[in-house]
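lol ok so funny story. i was supposed to be doing the assay writeup but got distracted and ended up predicting the structure for this chain instead. priorities right. anyway since i did it might as well share w the group, maybe its usefull for someone
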Amino acid sequence: MNALTITLGTVGALLSLVCWYVFIRGGLRMFNIVRLGQPAPDRWRPIVPRFKQMLVEFLAHTKMVKFRTVGWAHWLVMIGFMLGFIVWFEAYGQTFNPEFHWPIVGNTAAYHLIDELLGLGTVIGITTLIIIRQLNHPRKPERQSRFAGSGFKAAYFVEAVVLIEGLGMVFVKAGKIATYGHANPYTDFFTMRLAELLPANSNMVSIFALIKLMSGMIWLYIVGSRINWGVAWHRFTAFPNIYFKRMDDGTVALGPAKPMMSGGKVLEMEEADPDVDAFGAGKIEDFSWKGWLDFTTCTECGRCQSQCPAWNTGKPLSPKLLIMSLRDHSHAKAPYLLAGGKKDMAGDEVGLVDSEGNVDQAKLDAIPQAARDEADRKLVADAIEGGIIDPEVLWSCTTCGACVEQCPVDIEHVDHIIDMRRYQVLIESEFPSELAGLFKNLENKGNPWGQNSKDRLNWINEMDFDIPVFGQDADSFQDYEYLFWVGCAGAYEDRAKKTTKAVAELLATAGVKFMVLGADETCTGDSARRAGNEFLFQQLAMQNIETLNNVFDGVEQSKRKIVVTCAHCFNALGNEYPQVGGDYEVVHHTQLLNRLVRQKKLIPVASVSQDITYHDPCYLGRHNKVYDAPRELMAASGSNLKEMPRHGERSMCCGAGGARMWMEENIGKRINIDRVDEALATNPKKIATGCPFCRVMLTDGVTARQEGGAHEGVEVVDVAQLMLESITRVESSVLGENIKVIPRERTPEEKLATENAAEVEEAERIAPVEEPAEAKSAPAAPAPKAGGGLKMKGLAKAPGAKAPGSAAPADSADAEPAAKPKGLGMAGGKAPGGKGLQMKGKAPGAKAAAPAPADTPASTEAPATAEASESTPSVKPKGLAVKSGFKKPGAKAPGKPAAEATTASAPAQETPDAPAESASAATESKPTVQPKGLAVKSGFKKPGAKAPGKPAAEAPVSEAPAAEAPKAEAPTAEAPVAEATASEAPATEAAAESKPTVQPKGLAVKSGFKKPGARTPGAASAPAATPAEPEKAEPEKAEPTPEAETSVADAPAAEAPETEAPKAEASDTAGESDGRTPPKPKAGGLGFAPGAKVPGRRK
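and the output, tada:
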């Protein structure tokens, strides 16, 4: 120790105090910023599995090694950084005393070996990474570089510091050997050779130690003052980000979508309040703190970008750039949020206000102007409007999960994208116009193509053997093994129907007892959820759960098995339905068929013997890790598998996920064309897959390439078809016998339990329900007044009950015109009938139905239906605010009250009814309140639904009781004209006293909310005091559609003929019956104006 070394040591110690202060202050600031996110209490437990997974990913580098060279190089740098701290802190003593070493262990052979390996490993690793970055630098065409858009200044700084640290460890040790000797060839094998080149100088050792120390101090200072440098901070934030990943079983955040959260809890639509709850992410503070941690942790490595199908085909979406944009915005807006700033949905300041609610200007002025400007920016808007994320970026995502799969620090890109879509759909109503047709078809018809539910049975009629349908051929799942979930594509789309038939024949050949749901099936809602329409997804899911629990009633949990052919249905039923109460064992058809081959129940005898490449569906592969079963099935069939370069977990998306199946691609190269080019490069005879969406996209791509005369004869098939080719086909009579179920003799206990259950159900069905005393005498409640915002809470009606305000007294005020809806008005959208709603022409090949009649016969010619004299009071709905009487999943469906029994066979003359024209003339309709927010009219509708019609008119009254009877809301504009023909619609006898209207909760589902796919309830007939001479209305000349032939039993009890139907409705009905193109939309759903704004287009 001398004057020079003391000076060097003192300078190093003093400067390090400043650097450590800046670094710690930056870390605390980052911690406070991350806390600005919404609560996420589900991220902490279970502790042991989460901690174990964090250690595995850290030590084994399981994510990094997917890029092999980068994997081992980064591992060396990581270990050098973590353990190098021990050697680095030793430099404090070495600046004062060149001979300094840690007491006890510092002079041992083990410590010297560790020092040697850490120094060399750090230098080798960082040098490799520097070379890789330069070889992939975007100075070449940007689309070929995963580093395009990354911050090179931060990356170069970090790489330089790490290199200096590694060299510092090596040279300090070599200098000590050169000065003091004591080299060991086993522990100092490199530094002893380097020491031969250095002079023996003790001051040199202190200088080397100071350089090593100060390089680290500079790193602490720079990084501490730039907390948005994820490439540096990920050394600290990656550990908690891995620990707090969404899936506590160690898998990535794929499979089930993240539920819509608000305040740290799963948002229940019944209690949703837009003034309090966050419907998705409309502002940066709507993301959870885990989301903010994701933004901060991003290393800008670009692995996600290199795998993204949108980015690689010229779309504006880069998962890396999206996360970086959210990170920069969150840190720029943080001063405003930390100061207590907050804006409401209208953009008005509600956080920094005084006791009277006025803006506290003094507090606002204390916030930097840049932060206040950042707070005024929209999260999703185009560049002209100053948005953070461009709509084209948001809607280009296919949710394939390639970004999440590749991210080395477990960032959950797809979750954040879906959350932003939810806000755009549910609040802003800003989404691609094609989705309006999708939402409308899903709600009205229960499938994306808008086909009739009865057509789900068409493929069965094309089979050579009988397939049991639940409710028709079998009333119980007892003795069956599997429920075959056919899916929308499998039932309607011609190419997918081939897969359905092949699977059905293979299961029958193997003797698997299975049944199908037929017309009772409804879309699982996958596309609705990925498109951001969480409300519609939950409605579809709850309806399907009710149906499935009815099928599996009395079946033990382990035997509730479903087999599906659609990868999207597979993911929804198996991963997402448990979130809303539906827990079943779901297998993909490739898994089940492969199992049957192993069990020798399917024996391939004729080898396919063709070169076939296989495309991994994203929702089967990456989302559910099913990679081996399809390939093993192909091998069993004798196929010669030729893999594409991108396969398995790196498989390229076909472009159909994320509801992109129903949207057009107008930017860059089509994703399916890019994937087909890769497949055709293997020169296959066939392209196999395991998903109907993939099959549609790949077939379209092959067809496009074959139009140029290349690759003639290449066919896209499902794996099941290959297996069917390889087995010995069985006679149809044998197939029918194979799946025929012979009911076993029930035990006395089972018989007794069935009889008791039937008695209880019958007693509940016929038991009269007494009305509260006040309900019997009180007049109908007035319509509730609509409030601001979404105002779902308190505005909704009880599911199945009459719409609030639909019952108006006879002496009500003059009607006001219906207010124009706001909120989900889809401003800037395409007009109905535009090309945007054609959904890419992927309609099934079903024949178009006959045109619908333009008008209906007079309602006075219809038969009658009796209505109860006293109805029960409506109750507050639970759960997702679905239709009246919606039972809890797993419970038996309640029987209908006796008073609601239809009397379709009763002659019309036995129940006199007033003429519709005179009834409408005598009654004045109730005032219509102006909706706000989500355009929640009285009788709230979901996205894509038709607008509710005007209330039905009342007939002139001659008796007081009749005048007090409230009338039911009649959605005349909504009911299909074909269903309103007088030959099938019963009239109703007015009740003497009606149940009181209860102010409901939830999302204000409209009166008589129908399940998706069912027909809309017709208007209730006007109550009549005295019989009247019916007036004949001139019927239209149009032919009725097959839809009009549905029996009265299929229609709701309250359904009645309409006096006059708008002619525009007839054309819409005709459009819906066309299976090739989706119907043209009308204003409906959550108050949509026709169409929707195309992303990127200004209003």
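The chain is about 40% helix and 5% strand. The longest strand covers residues 482-485.
back to the writeup now i swear
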